[in-house]
Design goal:
By secondary structure, this protein is α/β, with parallel strands linked by helices. The protein folds into 3 domains: about 1-120, no CATH class; about 140-200 and about 210-285, Rossmann fold (3-Layer(aba) Sandwich), CATH 3.40.50; about 315-420, no CATH class. It contains 17 helices and 10 strands.
């Protein structure tokens, strides 16, 4: 499927034939067009931020990718999953980005398992910089999703390491208020930028959303290049806080290799994204300080246990949160890892789960595919060993020494196994 992505004032003329046209940074002007990022420029303008030129281009690309990931249906592809996506994107420096297309396509293919082809034209958005611009004094940027891992990360940055992060969030229904609450309470109140990609495409949209991390990182780069230290010529660290087990997210069974195993913060993807930033001359460093910690270890090691105990249950982990009336289902893989981490932490889990009982054998519980898959994975590792179960989840050529990754996966799976045993799952 071919998509042409550009601001309304250019990019949709003759010769730009497309299956779908995507309006960037404003609302669609007709029902046959998609749109993404309608309010981002206004929010950045009101904050008086001055991001780097290539950070704006990176955001244009990320918004285009999110629009494609939303508007191109997997069930319409030949194999029911793998899509062929051709994107033409308007940027301010098409020559530079054309030279990097292979690197970008490689990371998108790894991230979403689709076949991506990118091309670039001029006419990308470059907002007039504020005069004078704000120069935020914060020393780093951290993603705050409303999830448990990102909350622990923000707590540790402030209470454990004495840092002053500028927080950035993708606004999601059911999470906006808790994101703002956490930001207001940490460190006496932290600056917080909430953005929404607002990707909206005609017809029935794709729900798998494998490319979502690209927009989170693009927001963070936009903000990082706006800080005073960046304008002073220094590098800025962006903290992407995720436990090491979910970062690797090995497929629980062979049948889950594609549709049910995401790569949102996989170290290979993060490494490829970092390479792109480096070649673009953007002095931003992506870091996951919990790459080799399990979720249970993150909970136990959090620098402010009192705050965590009070608020941990209010965070969001569920992959079906909105579909369950903004409640945790209790049985998807993110919920299982969450519940296992509370069990390992030893503190009561006050989260309300739609399916709190996992071991019942009746018609209402017969569809617990994720629970069965988790139990099968635990059993297979015990009988056949970790390496056989992991298969090709780890790549030593791209990741270097894989032993630390194997160890955190083993400990994460052990947490999961102990929880399943405690709850009566066989």
């Amino acid at each position: 499927m071919r998509l042409v992505c550009a601001p309304l004032n250019g990019g949709f003329g003759a010769g730009a034939a497309a299956d779908l046209e995507v309006v960037l940074f404003s609302h669609a002007d007709r029902p046959t067009r998609a749109a993404a990022g309608a309010n981002v420029v206004d929010i950045i303008r009101r904050a008086k931020l001055r991001p780097a030129t290539r950070a704006w281009d990176l955001l244009s690309i990320a918004l285009s990718v999110i629009a494609a990931d939303t508007g191109v249906r997997r069930d319409e592809s030949p194999d029911g999953w793998t899509r062929e996506i051709n994107l033409q994107i308007a940027v301010s420096d098409p020559t530079f980005w054309t030279a990097q297309k292979d690197l970008f396509e490689k990371q998108l293919r790894f991230l979403t398992t689709d076949l991506w082809t990118l091309s670039f034209t001029g006419g990308g958005v470059q907002p007039v910089p504020p005069n004078p611009p704000a120069m935020p004094p914060e020393d780093c940027v951290a993603l705050l999703s409303g999830g448990l891992d990102s909350l622990i990360g923000a707590i540790d940055l402030v209470s454990g390491h004495g840092k002053r992060p500028y927080l950035v969030s993708q606004v999601a229904q059911g999470d906006k208020e808790k994101q703002a609450y956490f930001a207001s309470k940490l460190g006496g109140g932290l600056k917080h930028l909430q953005l929404n990609h607002d990707a909206n495409c005609p017809g029935v949209n794709e729900r798998s959303q494998r490319a979502r991390s690209i927009i989170f990182l693009a927001y963070a780069v936009l903000l990082a290049t706006s800080l005073k230290r960046y304008h002073d010529g220094q590098a800025v660290t962006v903290y992407v806080c995720e436990n090491g087990y979910i970062s690797i997210n090995p497929a629980l069974t062979p049948g889950r290799l594609g549709s049910l195993s995401t790569r949102t913060t996989h170290p290979i993807f993060i490494g490829l994204f970092q390479s792109l930033l480096d070649v673009a001359g953007l002095r931003v460093r992506i870091e996951n300080p919990y790459q080799f910690k399990t979720k249970g270890e993150m909970l136990a090691g959090c620098a402010d246990q009192a705050f965590l105990k009070k608020n941990a249950h209010t965070t969001t982990s569920c992959g079906r949160f909105a579909r369950n009336g903004f409640r945790h289902c209790g049985r998807c893989v993110p919920c299982l890892i969450r519940r296992a981490s509370f069990h390992a932490w030893g503190e009561p889990d006050k989260t309300v789960y739609v399916y709190s009982k996992l071991s019942k054998n009746d018609s209402d519980h017969s569809g617990f595919d994720d629970v069965r898959s988790a139990a099968m994975a635990v059993a297979q590792v015990r009988s056949e060993g970790l390496d056989r179960w992991l298969g090709a989840s780890l790549n030593s050529v791209l990741m270097g020494d894989t032993m630390p990754y194997k160890q955190v996966v083993a400990r994460g799976l052990e947490e999961l196994g102990k929880f399943l045993k405690a709850t009566g799952v066989k």
